[in-house]
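Dear Dr. H.,

I hope your travels went smoothly. While you were away I took the liberty of generating a structure for the chain from your last submission, since the lab meeting agenda had it listed for discussion. I wanted you to have the full record in hand beforehand rather than looking at slides cold. The sequence, exactly as received, is reproduced here:
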Amino acid sequence: MGREEAEIDRLPVDLLAYIFGFIISFTDLAQASSVCRKWKEGVKQSLAQRNSMSFAGWKMDDDSTTRLVRLAYNLKELDISRSRWGCQITDNGLYQISLANCIGNLTSISLWGMARITDRGVVQLVSLLQHNKYKL
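The corresponding predicted structure, in token form, is as follows:
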């Protein structure tokens, strides 16, 4: 007896990406991306299509945040404001974010209440982004 393909496995990657675009939980997206290669590609495509991303309310560190921002090629608004669980973004994370491909598209970056980001980190970010207009 041959193995039959599940109905959801027949969906094209771009449709999976569209569906994953409705998921706002980064934990759920991480779990979906570990189901199979096709779903992982769908999650990547859904992140690439996002215009805005907010980490407010999420416990995020430099590596996790940078990984997600690097996948969001069309990102225009980024909110890494302080969360109730204490966002762990540092100057190094801010620098890594500034190297992402989407950085030229960004029109707004919110850093409100970020205790682990210093003036040095913000100045470094702004100096890398002088040619764009940002609301900090």
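Two observations you may find useful: The chain has six helices and three strands. The radius of gyration is 17 Å.

With kind regards,
E. W.
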